[in-house]
Amino acid sequence: MHFVKDVKYVSDYKLLLTFEDGSVKLVDLEPYLDGEIFEPLKDPAFFKKVRVDPDLDTIVWDNGADLSPDFLYEIGVPVVESLEVKVG
């Protein structure tokens, strides 16, 4: 089982998630926002209020919507974060 450790809003319905194993994945949730609980998330201003719930180990919204961390891990596209080295 995976756990979400950090979330960053990217754009539209895309989020950058960091998991317990150190992997960073980009998830696009637009195709998955079906059902009454997810309806408020279609409002971009509300969607941006996503946060990690440390008790659930996944992302949540204030209306009670959440998604399984294993599901997020599976649909996520791996991202390799580039580190900028500044010489000065």
Secondary structure elements and pairings:
Elements (H helix, E strand, L loop, with lengths): L3 E8 L2 E6 L4 E5 L15 H4 L3 E3 L4 E3 L8 H7 L1 E2 L10
Antiparallel strand pairs: 1-2, 2-3, 3-6, 4-5
Looking at the overall shape, the CATH architecture is 2-Layer Sandwich
- Could you state the order of secondary-structure elements as H and E? EEEHEEHE
CATH class, anyone? Alpha Beta
Tally of individual domains:
1
CATH topology: NE0471 N-terminal domain-like
* Residues in helix, %: 10-25%
Query: What is the quaternary state of this protein?
Result: single chain
Search tags:
88 residues; alpha+beta; NE0471 N-terminal domain-like; four-stranded antiparallel sheet; two-stranded antiparallel sheet; 2 helices; 6 strands; 31% strand
Describe the protein's architecture and organization.
By secondary structure, the chain is an alpha+beta fold. It has one domain (4-78): 2-Layer Sandwich (NE0471 N-terminal domain-like). 12% of the residues lie in helices and 31% in strands. The chain is built from 2 helices and 6 strands. The protein has helices spanning 44-47, 69-75, and strands at 4-11, 14-19, 24-28, 51-53, 58-60, 77-78. The strands form 2 sheets. A 4-stranded antiparallel β-sheet has the order 1-2-3-6, with helices on one face. Strands 4-5 form a two-stranded antiparallel ribbon. Strand 4 and strand 5 (58-60) form a beta hairpin. The N and C termini lie far apart (43 Å). The model has no long low-confidence stretch (mean pLDDT 93).
